[in-house]
Amino acid sequence: MLPKIGLAKGVTTAAFLALCLGQAQLALCAGQPPPRDGDQRQGRQQYSIEQAVSDEAQLHTIAFSGLAFITGDYGACTFLPPGKVCDFFGFQYMRDIDAAEKGHNPVFLNRVSGNVLYILNDGQRALFEKSARQEAEQLRILAEKRFPLIKAFCRQLSRDVPAGSQGLNQEYVAQYVGDLFAFDAELSYRRAQLYGQVAASFTPEQKAYLAKMKFGDFATWPDVDVEKYKLPRGTEQLVNVAYMTYASEFFSWYAGSVEADTYFCPERHGTYFGGFYMKDMPAMGKRDFDISTSVTGDSGKAFLDLLTPDQRACITGIVSQERKDIAEMITVRRAISTELRKFLTGGTADKEKVLELGHRYGELDGTLSYCCAVAFAKVNQTLTVDQRTAMVKLRNLSGYKSAPAYLYSQPLNKAATLPDTDLFFFQPKKAGGA
What is the mean pLDDT of the chain? Predict the structure, then answer.
C-alpha cells in the first residue's frame, strides 16, 4: 500500500499552503518565470512556467494526449520516461532552455551525466550506486501502481464500465493519484538528501570544474566518455536508470535554482494517455536523434482541427475547467522545491511537509487526468470512420507495435495482473436503495 496522506482535520488547503509558504509566496508563480541563464536563443521559443501553463500550451498538450489515447492502446499508455517522476531538480527546465538545442537529444543526458560522474570520486559514485540499488524496487512499485489507473481510463474510453455504473469516480481517481504522488515525493526527498550529502563533500577542485559547466548550455560541457563510468554490464536496468538519473539531476539541481525546480513542461501532468509513447518511440534505441520541440503543439492542433465543433468543445472545456488547479500545482511545486533545497545548503527538509504537499499535488493531477479521460471517451464515441483514419495517419507511427506494457520505457513481455479496477468507477446502487 502506498502511504495515504491528507490534510489534518479542520485544516483547509489554503491554510496549509500558507503555513508552508508564507502569505507572500501564495501568489501565482506563473508570472515569475525561471532565470534565463544560458538562454541566448533570440527569436526562438522562450520557456517559462508562464508559457507552460498558458491556455494554448495546455490545450495543445491535452489534445496531443487525446490523439495518443484514441489511436493507441493500453500498452502505449503505460510508457513513461523515467525522468517524469521525482522531477523537482530542474532538469526539465535545463533541457528545455538549452542554448545548443540538444536538450531533447539522447546525447544531452549522456553528456551531463558523464561530466558529473567524471568529477566525482570513488566514494561519491559509490553513494550514488548504493542509493540506486535501494531505489530500484521503489521505482518499480511506482510504475506498477500506474497500471490499474491506466486500465480504468482505457475502460472508460471503450465504454467497458461496470454494469449500472455512471463511469469513473473523480474522487477515487484523485485520491489514488494523490497516493502515487506522495510516494513520488518520498523518493524525491531521499534523492535530495543524497544530493545534499554529495555536494557537502566536494573539494574546491570539484566545485571549480562544475562551475565551468554552464546551466542550460550543452556547448560548455566537455565531451566525456560516459561509458567509462556506467555501472557494470548486467546491472539491473532500473538500477542503471536511477544511477544515471542521479548524475544528470544532480548537476541541474546544484547549478540551478528553486525557479528551475518549480518549472514543468505541459506534458508533466496527465501522463496516462500514451503521449510519451507517440512522441518518443521514434527516438528509442538511437544515440543521436532530435525530437522536435514543436511536435506536441503541432499534432495537438491538427487533432483539434479534425474534430467537429461539439467534439472540440469537449477538449477545450478542460482548459478553463482546470485553470485554477494548474495555478495551485505551481504553488505546490514551489513549496516542495523550496523545502528540498534545504539539503543543498546544509539544512534538513521537513519530510512530512513534503509528503503532504506531494499528496495534494497528486490530487490535482488526478483531477486533471479524470477530466481528460472523460472528455477523450466522449469524443471517441462520436468519431466517424474518416476521422479515425485521419487520426491514425496523424499518429505517424506506421510499423510500430506497442508492448503489452512498459516499465517506464522498458517493454514487458506481458501485462501485469491487475487488481479489481471496478473501484475506479461509481458503483451502481443496490436494489432497494441500500
Answer: 87
Instruction: Specify the residue for cell string 522545491.
Output: 337
Asked if residue 47 has pLDDT above 70, the reply is: yes
Across 109-129, average pLDDT: 97
C-alpha span between 108 and 101 (Å, rounded): 9
Banded model confidence at residue 2, pLDDT cuts 50, 70, 90: very low
In one letter, which amino acid is 60?
Answer: H
- Predicted pLDDT at 382: 97
Segment 81-96 shows an average pLDDT of 93
Question: What is the sign of the dihedral through the CA atoms of 17, 23, 25 and 31?
Answer: positive
Report CA Rg, the chain. Answer: 21
Say how far apart CA 419 and CA 89 lie, in whole Å.
Answer: 33
Residue 410 pairs in a beta bridge with 407
The answer to whether residue 13 scores a pLDDT higher than 60 is no
CA dist 60 and 302 (Å) reads 9
| Residue of 392, 367, 373, 409 whose CA lies nearest to 306 | 392
**Which amino acid, one-letter code, is at 252?**
S
Q: Which long-range contacts (CB under 8 A, 24 or more apart) does 16-20 make?
A: 16/356, 16/360, 17/331, 17/332, 17/335, 20/335, 20/339, 20/353, 20/357
Orientation angle between helical segments 55-71 and 122-157, nearest 10 degrees: 70
End-to-end CA distance of the chain: 29
CA within 13 Å, CB half, 194: 27
| Greatest distance between any 2 Cα atoms in the chain | 76
d(CA 224, CA 210): 13
What does pTM read for this prediction?
Answer: 0.86
